[in-house]
Every structure is written in structure tokens, then in C-alpha cells.
Amino acid sequence: MNDGFIRTAAATIPVKVADCEYNADRIIEAVKEADGKGCSLLVFPELCITGYTCGDLFLSKRLQEGALNALFRILKETADTKTVFVAGLPIALEGKLYNCAAVCLGGDIYGIVPKTNIPNYSEFYEARYFAPYTDAELSYRYISLSGYPHPSDDNSEDECMAEILFGRIFFQCGNYPLFTFAVEICEDLWVTSPPSVKYAEGGALIICNLSASDEVIGKKEYRKKLCDMQSAKLVCGYIYADCGLGESTQDMVFSGHSMIYENGALISEAAPFSGSFDKHTIIYADIDLEKLSGERIKMNTFPGGAPNFGSPNFKRTIAALQNFKITPPSFEPNRYFPKMPFVPANKSERDDRCREILTMQAAGLATRLRAIGCKKSVIGLSGGLDSTLALIVTVRAFDMLGLDRSGIIAVTMPCFGTTSRTKSNALILAESYGAQIREINISETVRSHFADIGQSEDTHDVTYENAQARERTQVIMDIANQIGGIVIGTGDLSELALGWATYNGDHMSMYGVNASVPKTLVRHLVDYEARQSEERLSAVLRDILDTPVSPELLPPDKNGEIAQKTEDLVGPYELHDFFLYYTVRFGFTPKKILRIAKIAFKNDYSDDIIEKWLRVFIKRFFSQQFKRSCLPDGPKVGSVTLSPRGDWRMPSDASANLWLDF
Q1: Separation between Cα atoms, residue 234 and residue 230, nearest integer Å
Q2: Which of 185, 538, 612, 648 has an alpha carbon 20 to 30 Å from 459's alpha carbon atom?
Q3: Strands 377-380 and 486-489
Q4: Rounded Cα–Cα distance for residues 86 and 651 (Å)
Q5: 3-state secondary structure of 661
Q6: Pairwise CA distance, residues 444 & 395, whole Å
Q7: 187 among known catalytic residues
């Protein structure tokens, strides 16, 4: 449903300390607003019904009763809503007072979760009032709350008593099983073994945290790191709702710093002190449950099965499963999907990424050269982006090893489609880096081959094109044999995904340094190098960046310009890289990829054009697997790679029909 997206929220209300009725009004307003926006799960702060800073008033039976009565009124006034909400309040039970979270939906309480870890250090002294829910107790039980359900005029309170699940609980939507969540409270996150670990191991895809984290210098960053890492380690959505304005500032200040994370990524945040004294603040985020579930399935080290909240007294006590039913409404995901998921949007982060990737590529090649005792490399240098990047990486590898750059042999092999622009750029590039340059015109060799096989030079078919690519590969392979060197592959990840390479032509090398670098990222790597280089080298790199992407296998146009443009034939690389990322990294369905692509590229391409190229991608991705099944070695530098020895194993004769049916 909704391709796995579910709308969640964290709310901070402006409380009045110990004024349960006022706080209930604010909670009701927030629940109704969230419900109106299609929110399925709303989390409030810790003890929000009373306020967190009530002090010894928590021990007052009047406040305890007032909190319960306020909760019952909240239930009555939100009975017609379809949003699951989690609100905090104190609950007295069997001679103990617990700091609790009530999970509510449609006028009912579906469960109450008590806080496990009670802080009693520094500015916190909760142990003065609250008991911890410890392992020495049952994992869960059923309790009765006087007055629940809230009595009508013609029923006595005793007749209306109902049992409520209390303790460690998993909440799962009966008609949407991926919607599974659990609750921990504030300090539970800060301890060495948070309850959320077991909840996630048991299947909870979302963890709710009701918090009252006071603000001190540096705590904001630390708090974010905790939520970031917990959501990443548990491969979950993490909703952190923090209390804010209105709490007593007698000893502490609260800022309402709420956050929503998804698998280590911050997807929504309320900045500290951004709230109001008069109105609630709600942050929303659409969490992708299919994505989280898929990630866990892929990670065979992620524990599965029932959680174990074991203790010396209870070797295996299993948290209860509480089922509820809710149909998440249809909506367009309110999320940002970057058009280039392989490329960081922030320039500083992008430069760091480029620097790291170039170093990784160079280290991979340097290790290979050192291992085989090789001091010579051969590159087919076309004057295009990919071979330029391969040369940059090779130069860095030689520098790492202290090898003379003259051991790099750059071979330019003009033929029928070569333009003066790309040939000139190749020559200047090699010279600028101090590599040897060889120019070998292969036109007559290819014509001789055409004559041998009866191919007309006027027939510009796939044979016409591939013969040139294979001849170039033969030339550089033989030169490598002559000098005792290896051939450096230039093909990139995007070309491998589309099969845009000549089998046993540019498809083949002895080490493919660009094998896991997508085309959209290649451009930024070359741009990064241009900005680090001296003027003449920088100028030629920038001209290469401005040159249309082309294999240059068909003759130039009448003006001598490139006539064969790759993206006119197979489609825009920015679209194909987008499709590749979500197909391989997360295993999304084509329907879901199309949906989010329409959001990401809404200002760039029509829906029909996006769908057209997605179908092209799927057909080529399946039909060209045979080329990927026998790839040369190459370094993995990102989370997506198609090496048959590494991350991607796929039969070459798999059918694409299921993927084309969307």
C-alpha cells in the first residue's frame, strides 16, 4: 500500500505543568490535525499529559487521577480519527508509579508501555517518583484502569472496566503487516542496551521514543548522533518526540528538538526552540517500510524471529503482539528524492566524496600493479569522460607507487567517427600528465577487416561500430604484451548496467578502475580534478566535460562535430542512474521507481518520457547481463556495483516480463 510509504509525525505541545486538561486540549488538536494530513502514527513527548517537570506532584493521587481522566477525554474526542498516537503519562499500578506511553487509536487504548531505564543522575531524579519496568518482572500482562472505557451516564464505572495490555509490546497493523512499531521512552535510548534493539530484532520497523531531553551546550549534536546510529544499526524508522516550551525552567530548559530518522538518514527535524507557547509543533515524515524491510532481508546478519527479553528468572519472555487495523490513506510521498542519488548535493561533501573515490580507485589499481610486479599500463584514450577518469586514476596510482608516469602509455586510435576535438583533447591530456602518447589510426585496419568478412563501409550497423571497438581493444592488448604492462579498463557502472559496451571490445580489460562509478558521478570526479589542476590541464578537462558523451563510432556531421550522442540512443544517464540506484540498492519495484522518479524529475521530464526510458532500462538491464557475468576485476567504491564476484549475481537468461508488467 502506498508503495511502502507511511506518514508519521512527532508533536511537541506547549504544556502547562500539572494542568492535564489544558494539555489534553493541545493533544486533541494535534491528533486531529495529523489525522487530517493522512498521518498514520503520531508520537508525543514523555509525560506530555501532565508535563515532565511536575516534581513531587507526581506522587499526588490527584495528579495521577487527573492524567487518566485527561487520557480518557482525549480518547473520546479522537474516537473518529484514524491516526495511531502515543502519549505519555504516569500510571500507578500495584504500589508503584510508572512513567508510561499509551498507544491509542479510534478511542481505544491498544497498549501501555512503561519506561525501562529510570535516570537518577545529574539533573535527573526520576527514581524519586517512578519505578523501572525491570527484567525481574513479566514482559507483559493485562491491567485494568478504573474508568476505562470512560463511563457513560447509564453505566457504572465497574461495569466499564476493560483489560489493557501493559509491558513490552509490539504493535502491528493487521491489514498492513509492514506497519509494525514499538515504543521506548527517553533514557531507554541512552543506555548500553536499549529496549529498541530487541524490538527491532523481533520485527519492529519503527521505534517511537517519547522524550524529555533538556537542552545543554552540545547536547543537540549528541542527541542526533544517538538517533542517527540507532536507526542505522536497527535498520528502522526512529521517531523522537521531545518536550519543549511550557515545561518548568526551574532547573532545566527544554527545546522541543524532535527528529525522525530512517536507517541513519534524518528525514525531518524540529529545530531546538522553534516551537510556540500557544500552538503545537508537528513534524511529518513519510517512512518507507518496504525499503527498511528489504534492507533487513538483504542483511543476513540482521537477527530475526521473536525477541528475547531474558533474565535469570525468565529465560525467555516474549513481548506481546498487539494487533490493530488501519488503512493508510493514499498520498504522494512528502519526501525529497535527489535526481542524482550517487552524487552528494552539498559541494563540500561532494568534494570529499570525489577525493575519497579517486583515492580508492587509485589504491585498487596500485595494489594490483604492486602484486603482479607491473610498472607499465596502457589506456585507450579517446578524449571522452570515462577514459579521462581512467587516466586520472592511473596517474594517481603511479604516484602512490613512486613509478615514473612515462610508464603510462596512452593510445589514441582515430577512426571513422573521431573528431578533431576529442583527438586534440586526448593528446593534450596525456602530455599534461606526463604519460607517453601513441597515435595509431585504425581506419585501414578496420577496412581490411570489413573486406575479410564482406562488410560494406557504407552500412553503418552494429558490425560497423563493434569492429572499431574490438580493433581498438586488440591494439591496446597487444601493446600491453609488448611492454609487459596491463590494460586499464575505462567503462563505467552506468554503461555496465545498460550493456552499452562492445562484448570483448571496450567491455574487456585487465583491471577496470571505473567499474563501480556511475556516469553522473564520473562527471563530478573529472570536474573535481579540473579544479585541482594547473591552468592548461584544467582547461582541457573542462572542454572534455563540455563534450557530448559519444562512442564516436559513426562519422561526424557535415561540420565535423559529433553526430552520435549516447543519450539520444539509450536515454538520459541521470534517469538511468536513478533507475539503477533504486533497482540494485533497494530492490524497488518498477512501479515504485516510476512513482518516485516522477517526483524527482517533475520539472525535467514528462511522465511518459520517464516511463519510456524506465522500460528501456529494464529491457537492457536484463538482456545485457551476459556482459556483466564476465567482467574484469575492478574496485568497489560505492554501495552499488555489478561485479559478478561481489554484489550482483544474476542469470544471463532471466526474464524481464515481471518487471515490465507495471
Answers
A1: 6
A2: 612
A3: parallel
A4: 47
A5: coil
A6: 32
A7: no
Give the Cα separation of 90 and 68 in Å (integer): 8
Is residue 552 annotated as part of the catalytic site, yes or no?
no
What sign does the dihedral 64-67-72-75 (CA atoms) show? negative
- Residue pointed to by grid coordinates 491489514: 175
Active site residue 115: yes
Cell matching residue 137 = 518482572
| Residue that has been written with the C-alpha cell 579498463 in this structure | 489
Q: Residue 110: which of 160, 153, 174 has the closest Cα? A: 174
Strand-pair category, 5-12 with 281-288: antiparallel
Pick the CATH number of 7-324 from 3.20.20.140, 3.30.420.40, 3.60.110.10, 3.90.480.10: 3.60.110.10
> Residues 39, 186, 208, 243: which is the catalytic one?
186
Choice among 115, 376, 592, 627 that is catalytic: 115
| pTM for the predicted model, two decimal places | 0.89
Write the pLDDT tens digit of every residue in 439-484: 999 999 999 999 999 999 999 999 999 999 999 999 999 999 999 9
Distance CA 262, CA 287 (A): 7
Q: Are 416 and 554 in contact (CB under 8 A)?
A: yes
Exposure on the CB side of residue 358, measured as CA atoms within 13 A: 26
CA 117 – CA 303 distance, rounded (Å): 24
Range in 299-303, 375-379, 408-412 the model is least confident about = 299-303
Q: Please give the distance of CA 36 from its chain centroid, rounded to a whole number.
A: 28
- Neighbouring residues of 180: CB distance < 8 A, sequence distance ≥ 6: 170, 171, 172, 173, 203, 204, 205, 206
Instruction: Please state the domain extents for the chain.
Output: 7-324, 347-566
Compute the distance between CA of residue 543 and CA of residue 534 in angstroms, rounded to an integer: 14
Peptide bond into 149 cis (omega under 30): yes
Write the CATH number of the domain with boundaries 347-566: 3.40.50.620
